[in-house]
Amino acid sequence: MESDVDATMLACLAFSCPNMQSLEISMADSAVNRMTGDELTRFISEKKSLTVLKVDRCSGLGFLNINSTSLSTLWLSDLSSITKYVINCPNLSELSLIFSQQDNDSTDLISMMDSLGRTCLNLRKLHISSIHLCNEAVFALGSANLRGLCMLSLLLGKKITDAAVASIVRSFTSLELLDLSGSCITDNGLGMISKAFPDTLTRLLLAMCPNITSCGVQVAAVQLPLLQLMDCGKSLCANVQPEAPRSYFGDLNGGIRFCSKLQVTRKQQPTYQKLIIKHANLKKLSLWGCSAIDALYVNCPELSDLNLNSCINLNPERLLLQCPSLKDVHVTGCRDMLIGAIRNQVLNEFAAAEPRMPCKRLADGSKRVQVPQFMPEQVLNCTCNAATLPNPHPRLYAVLIHCSLCTLITHIR
Fold first, then answer.
1. What's the predicted TM-score (pTM) here?
2. Where would you find the membrane-spanning parts of this chain (predicted)?
3. How wide is the angle at C-alpha 239 spanned by C-alphas 236 and 243, nearest 5°?
4. pLDDT value for 19
5. What three-state secondary structure class fits 138?
6. CA–CA separation, 300 vs 79, rounded Å?
7. Taking CA 59 as the corner, what is the angle to CA 55 and CA 64, rounded to the nearest 5 degrees?
């Protein structure tokens, strides 16, 4: 929407589309959503055939009171301080509620989670994004009796720990997708996930989880044989730890004085990790921003997409890619030597095949972006040495390369 959304616009939509089944409202940067909770409630109650509703920038709703027997998909974003929460939709199968990242958000997520089991019995896909997500909210969700849930995404919950993971694995037995990005789970929680869903889980997203290590990731890859997508972006980070305080004995006026806990200023080197991923079915692996990885071995015959953006400490001499199906490699922000090593391994590994235009997906597989077209002359005239690809090979469909001069997406025919 280029213009503002208000009661008048909703009334026009209701009048002009009496048999509306799907409505999606996305806002332009300059537009404002002035819709209130009363107006949304009235609109949904009048649209008896509405099955899909997606509305952006819902900060002015104030409360949710949604009753519909036809609604199956509901997405609301930018929610804030919801004082009342009622979603009575017995046929609702997909629910996405994205809250604004404000510290003063007063929404009671615990009560909200608890009510889902009584009013949305057929819910299969649940996405909640809030910095106020906590263990207690997950416990309430676990007691909501949503046995049919197959996709669970709880984002940005820094107060979500392994205790919440234990509740998830007890309450939901058939999860195909689990996204706990932004949480504080550890390798123990990752181990519980791996043991609970070996026969169902195909997508596991744990981006920005600072307490997991490469060991936990490797165990998950081994114990989840059906996994097709794994995202550990910005989780394996090299954090410099300060050196422990030292004691010091000094001479003062002819005597000996003991000075304890004198801080030293010498900078400590970060602790690096090696990562070994060997998997028969994995198709997409995202390690963006994993600065703690200095050694990587990937043996995945079905892997088609590998994201190594900003893996700044990955050692080219400690990299081994055995992925004959690899099509897209993302290396924005990587060193030139690493880019060269990836290029050489990929070119030497691939066998001939029919070319096709590549597409990109986000880590969660939700959006597709067509790779822009480049004429061969544009590729050949590029002055960036780091982006030059010698001896083009037919199976290398797209390599994303970044250097100080330009970013080039090359297509090899």
1. 0.77
2. none
3. 145
4. 87
5. helix
6. 40
7. 70
Which residues contact residue 354 at a Cβ distance below 8 angstroms, ignoring those fewer than 6 apart? 394
Q: Whole-angstrom Cα distance, residue 211 to residue 165? A: 14
Q: How many CB atoms lie within 10 A of CB 343?
A: 22
Query: What does DSSP say about strands 328-330 and 85-88: parallel, antiparallel, or unpaired?
Result: unpaired
* Beta bridge partner(s), residue 299: 278, 322
CB-CB contact of 242 with 209 (8 Å): no
pLDDT tens per residue across span 244-259: 444 333 333 344 343 4
Count of residues making up the chain? 413
Token reading at 59 = 């900060």
With the C-alpha atoms ordered 381, 385, 390, 393, is the resulting torsion angle positive or negative?
negative
Residue 354's alpha-carbon distances to 326, 357, 410, in angstroms, are 14, 10, 16
| Structural tokens at position 398 | 């797209």
Burial class (CB in 10 A: 0-12, 13-18, 19+), 367: exposed
Give tens-digit pLDDT for 261-303. 444 444 455 678 999 999 999 999 999 999 999 999 999 999 9
| One-letter amino acid for residue 291 of the chain | S
Residues 6+ apart with CB under 8 A from 202: 176, 177, 226, 227, 228, 229
Distance between CA atoms of residues 170 and 117, nearest Å:
16
Cβ-in-10-Å burial (0-12, 13-18, 19+) of 269 comes to: exposed
- Convert 293-330 to b/e letters by CB count within 10 Å (16 or more is b): bbbbebebeebbbbbbbbbebbbbeebebebeebbbbb
Q: Phi then psi for 344, rounded to 5 degrees?
A: -65, -40
Distance CA 339, CA 341 (A): 5
Contact 314, 308 (CB under 8 A): yes
| Cβ atoms 397, 411 nearer than 8 A | yes
Which residue type is seen at 73? Answer: T
**3-state class (DSSP) for residue 7:** helix
Q: Which residue has the tokens 């100080």?
A: 404
| DSSP structural state of residue 408 | E
